[in-house]
Amino acid sequence: MVFRFAKRCIDGSRHTPLKVRNTVSRLRECSQGARHIRRLLWPFPWHFRPQQPPADIVNVGSNDKIVHVLHPDIRQLQCMPLFRARDTPLCSLYRMFEDLCTRQDVWMGYECQYFFYHNEPRWRLSQIPDPREKDPAIAAGLASLVDAMVTAFNWKLELGIRRTGKNDSTDDRVRNFEPEIAPAWVAEVPALEKLLDLHTNPHRKEGEPHPAFLERNVKACVGRIYDV
Question: pTM for this structure?
């Protein structure tokens, strides 16, 4: 049996589905390349598990450095096919929550776009598994993020922007898609007894708190998840 790891392109160059050369080049640019190589090549379990946020993450506040400590080199990793294949919706959701807690709006926007263009069935919002989060504040934040993403994704879909990357410019684009819905576990996450303020960022002009968060007594602005 012969396994083909590469195919010849029209111009005569070799191409592999894993884009090995591109991946190696990106790993060289990473601050923790050796760590990422070990993680990418270790096959058990195949799908990554979400990293638990540091203790008291909801009280971190605006911080320009902590986001890179929590998930360093993430933009490089997200361009690697092997990482994308092993990444999960729940991992991405936790990363977005970390960006929210550290007031890293731009990074949260990047992460949400990365999520949106994962078109595999397991990346449908309705398929996000229950994180069974024990911390009430984190649970409320995660559930609110999913609700907000449902609104943002459906808004993009109504504009004709498709998760496949092939946009719809027809007159039926407003109806020609399957709407995103939240998974069942989201509705079971209760509101917090005390207001959680994840809204204040001294480095930017505040937007309006998102209603999906206010319903769970969380104050947060997530306007960047609407970026297109």
Answer: 0.90
